[in-house]
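Standup, Tuesday
Yesterday: got the pipeline producing structure tokens again.
Today: sanity-check two examples.
Blockers: none.

Example 1:
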Amino acid sequence: MDQRNDKRTTTVRAGRRAGAVALLLAGAMVLTACGAGGSSDGTAADKRSGARPPQGTTGGDGSAPDAVAPDQGRPSEESGDTSRPELAAPDYLSTFALDVDTASYGYARSTLGDGRLPDPANVRPEEFVNSFKQGYERPKGNGFSVTVDGARIPDGSGSGPSDWSLLRVGLATKAAPPSSERPPASLTFVVDISGSMAGPGRLGLVQKSLNILTDELRDDDSVSLVTFSDEAETRLPMTRLQGNRNKIRDAVEAMEPAQSTNVEAGIMRGYEESVKGHRKGVNNRVVLLSDALANTGDTNADSILERIDSARREYGITLFGVGVGSDYGDAFMERLTNRGDGHTTYVGDEEQARKVFVDQLPAHVELRARDAKAQVAFDRRNVKQFRLIGYENRKVADEDFRDDSVDGGEVGPGHTVTALYAVRLREGASGEVAKATVRWLDPKTRKAYEESGSARTGTIDGRLWGGESQRLQVAAVAAYFADTLRGGDLPGTPTLRELASRAGKLANETEDSSVRKLATAIGQAEALRNGTEPEDGGDEGEGEIG
């Protein structure tokens, strides 16, 4: 996710509803189930020169069509009925940067467990959906597999299908190799020791997390430790693990809460240390552990990152954000990591820390793709309307899909990325519905590659609830839940009670504890909305990578 002077990223989050009333409105969204998708051959794609080839047709053959400019003043992923004369011809392309963050879901569950409804502005549906296993076929190489499938959403009465379907675009990278086979890592830990980190589940949890990671890292890995409150301090220069584990643990245990939160100072010092300890051929990453409640120094994420831009571009250093605490600066941390070539997660307890720093470690420190973007081309002959669920702050202009200077997302091994669309078909629709193409840069060679997959009307015609794909149903529940929390209006949204029931049933069918925790969170939200006492035992943290 290299940031260059001419980069253009669309970061305006649309459709946020503020206020408790809007938070509790149930949306009506169409999610569908049934799965059959295909993927085309991956091809190396050189960056386009100044001359553009003729524009392709939406949903046509070949690689993704050149983008049609979005309608003035209208989001590019929403299209209206062309029978309405007051509307311009709809745009049938949807383009966005890939996102593997899960912190929004983890923090929402933590908030619900504390007996509070999450702030709608902090609810990002894509992070709810991407917290759960989807079971996509993995690619054989280091690129992506592309799966496109879906199902028909029931009508409001539940007596039959509506004219809306849920389309699922699933992207997956190859599973992570065993720890012994991954490249060495050079990690700089930047730890918030401000006064706000003194509460439960904050600095103490960070110390436990770093001790877990110290045990997990290999002898040929290296770590450095930077702390910050009102100022930043290097507690440990870059140090090999071999023979130094006790030294590292002593530095971690010596951390104590201090004063204010100067994230700017911490990140700048962290990148300085990472550059000093930079090693060629290894994974160089800054790991920020904080409640992200910046109150001293520069508190603007973009301007902070501008100060270390050359270090990121020249040395390829990426940023991994780990959020902690019941009061957490979610938007600030997400902005930092999105613009810092990385991603973010949320850790609420020691069990979740072990999952992030042991089970999922390769996915958080390695890269399989840089500046990855997806473009979905809908066939206007069959599609009347469509809507991308989430990804509001990851939008990319359609014409920038193949402009490799435009910011995309970074994706590691073992990750899956899911994008759900509510799609309304035309009467009598038959044939191709959508073609999805993912484009990414090889992290080492910076060569561009593409992979595509498509879905036809028969692919998305099965029933959603009780259909063949349990994982599609889990994704639908997660998306509906998120949309309800933020006061959305998706077609076909069940009530929270119905969602909790469906999640519980799916937890039994899949034997997946993360789906059980989803059911618990939905039940807590319903109780809070109705003014009743929520159940105990809220579980912090995100679901699964896979």
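Example 2:
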Amino acid sequence: MKFAVLDFETTGTQSVGEIIQVGLAIIEEDRSISRVYGSYVKPGTPIPPFITGLTGITDEDVANAPELDEMMMELVPLLDDVVLVGHNVAFDFHFLQSALDRCGYLPFQGRILDTIDFLKICFPSLTTYQLGAVSSHFGLTHERPHQADSDALATALVLLQCLEELYSLPLLTIQRLTELFAEEDSDLAWYFDGLLREREMETFQPEGELTFHRQLALAVGDWTELVPPREEGASNPLENISFEDYMAEVTKRLKDTLPQYESREAQEIMIGEVKTALQEEKHLLIEAGTGTGKSLGYLLPAIYQSVRTDQKVMVSTHTINLQDQLRERDIPLLTSVVPFPFKAAIFKGRGHYLCLRKFEHKINKRDFVSPREEALTAAQMIVWLTQTQSGDDEELNLNGRGGDFWETVASDTDSCLGRACPWFRKCYYHRAKHEAGIADVVITNHSKLFADVKAGHQLLPAYEHLVIDEAHHLEDVAGKHLGMQMKYFTVAHTLTRLYKDSRNGQLPALRQTLQSSGSEEASEWSGVIDRIYPDLLTVKETWDALSDKLFGLLPERSDAAAGEAGQLVTRLHPGKKPKDWEELAALENTLNLSLSDIIRRGDKMLSEMRDTESQSSSDSLVTDIGGLFKDLASIREQIRFFMGLNDENIVYWMEGSGNYRGKSLQLYAVPVDVSTQLKDLFFDKKKSIVLTSATLSVDKSFQFMIDNLGLNEAAEQDRLMTALLPSPFKYREQALLVIPRDFPSVKGSVGDARFVDKLVHSLAETAVATKGRMLVLFTSYKMLRQVYDPLKEALASEDITVLGQGVEGGSRSKLIRRFQDSSASVLLGTSSFWEGVDIPGEALTCLAIVRLPFQPPNHPLAEAKSELLQAQKKNPFMKLSVPQAVIRFKQGFGRLVRTAQDRGIVIVYDTRVIEAYYGKYFLYSLPGPKMEHMLTDQMVPRIEEWLEGGNESNIQ
């Protein structure tokens, strides 16, 4: 098999455009690259500037290049009897066919393969399939990205990596992949068919350290064989060892392992405070800014405490990201520097783990909604099973509709067969649960923490000591979990999984199994299923009608500040039901009755089936359907609770988007004040809880957090410690904060023409001075849109790219990657960019904050909290709005300086920080950067001077 790897650079998109450069790499049968052909091509039109920007190819480069037909005379002979390969091959293939046609050749008839398909299958955990990123991941030299010959060579090398990977997989895995594609008439299916025949001829088959079970190759054995970190009955490794001795040994080993390691004052204080809190059974609020190294700051004392007293310490993070970072970076480091064996386990929500039983069932039955796409996702997962130790979906790059596929194979409580499952000993969820059971430290996340409380502590192993990282999110997460939230699709998906049409869905699948068994009971049960179908349709129609009517209560079009792009929000008040509510309540009643009927009849039928032994073939279906009925029961309760609108301590509201109407509906019912529940569930129950984050204090005081999290009583009883750690950075030298004092102000979330004009002008000037490398934070998506186009235009001639969240498409992480990869760019972001974005070093030099991040006061939850404060005779603006905004402002500021070497500038365009009486809270809460205010036109010269190293200013 000979491959020809093709790449074109063109002047435009697929439908229109001319070829300006071609690259072709030939891979021989022995997998050697025999030649790389490259040539410029003279197009009939000038090259657009953005293509020159991307490829570096100019009109001069192609002025004397061969015409298209001259180039084709050289190219066509090279395409004889080859398999054509490309990276996103449809693009290059389209241009090839039209060039062949224009120059009078017959169309290309051979086989076509795409390296993106191969990458997805062979390397399911790659975070991106972009050619440059993939090349550097494999350590391949890709000298001139977006130049055709270099791209073709890089693609050829990537293909060879994939082929090598396919030859190292066990034969069983190749057989399963071949079966997956066999049903479609595609070149991919043809390739795998040939590969399988070739592999079956080989006498030696690689198997590695894999386990084979029920026709799948896995990287894990039985979890029942996992042993505790230290032997039963062995003496405690910390028996006579003081905390000081333990830390001295750890520090010594840290210095040996990481030559650049130096102990930081803030981290040492933190280690001491956490140790004291855990030992003396107190709660601790500790603010640790960027660069403190807070993960080690709490993990080291947690390990000591846990191993010494033989009591688990639970650690909870807000984001799965941080959980994964602890797993990949901090725990391996600690394993090598802690002088005795210990175990730290990661435990996530159940839906993050693959259920092998459901997966096996799905691929054996080819239960695919869109066969081409889902066969590819299934192929990714079959290969991933030979690599994953955890079965955790975060390791997979499931793009497109992969998320829907995952939902159907994720582990869940209601459909778990437990010990009766043929996969029980290999089960990823039970492995994680068992690991958490034998671990000293368990790392989970806030969501799972609350899910565990709601499930009566059935999910997490018992614990008395808890560390909460990113604790400034605790209140939000608590509200979401202690209240309810439901999307339109929560209901719709559950219904379609039960019954989509007479051939698709779990009930039709069960009915088919029953019919083939032909017993008397079977025909009776088939009758029950037939009677459930129309009821399910009634539920679907009623839910659609109810969603549309609820959506109709949302305001036509308000100021988009409350939510992001195009979100509509409305609050419903207990005791003040909207007019025509009876009509909606009647729909809910119909829904409730139909659901109760379905659940009653369905459950009765399923329990009869479970009592009959003969139904083994439908065992797993019965379990899954039972699970879906349980989901329906909880949906029924939640909708009733929401529509009841009868709890004064709950805020009820709805959100939706004007584009998708009723289908975008989300219902929320959240407690106004969670402090009492947090106190009852956590602070009164647990011996010690450590809460840490970079932003817990406001104006050097923790009172805001103490009030909101329910810690007042602990403080009165002297059970609460607090600590504000010194910053490890020299902020006066590393950061300059500039306020243009004559800048126009704004009312609402939309800037007037004068404001937008001044802002664009100032941002553009600054961006030129800082050579891009600038992050601009907005509080409203509308204003971001207002600035995006004019700023793009203003910077076009300077070769500075402007990237806008929500304007470009692509996820947050993709935008950040583009920002880091491009030499000069300005990134505009709203809410989610204020925190959790880590862009160290040169890539970020300037941070511009357009408005102080006050939450829109009209958001239902903010509104209800204000009412509660007013009822307590407190000032909601000072007690709620300002502290929340200060914490967010500190988060935003924290994006700038990420390491001791970073230097940068923050511009605050909102003059309220120096004019309003509350402005000082914002500035005093920062970790001490140099602050200067000046006239707008003095700003750029001052920034240039400071960047060149002049710290002193004469401007006042």
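Quick observation on example 2: The CA atoms of residues 585 and 643 lie 7 Å apart. Confidence is low (pLDDT under 50) at residues 558-565.
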